[in-house]
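Could you join me in thinking about how sequence relates to backbone shape in a protein? Would you write everything just below, so we can both look at the same thing?
***
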Amino acid sequence: MDPQQVFTAGQQGLYMLLLVSAPILLTVLVIGLVVSIFQAATQIHEATLSFVPKVVGAVAVLAIAGPWMLTTLVEYLQRTLQSIPSAVG
């Protein structure tokens, strides 16, 4: 296995990580921004007011995009495992 294959495998792994985690991260980011603006406007600084909507949003995104995320990860893992013989030999 030459260095180019190692870098390509690492790049594909990082891309897959970004692709699969993006829906949850973006949802939590947007919810956090909206809650922060609401807290700044009303001057209510309650820690659970920020935490609960983020958890609810993350669970909702997992319920909606979870099957796609799992399918994407399984396909990536299958491709990676099937490419091991060609990388070693």
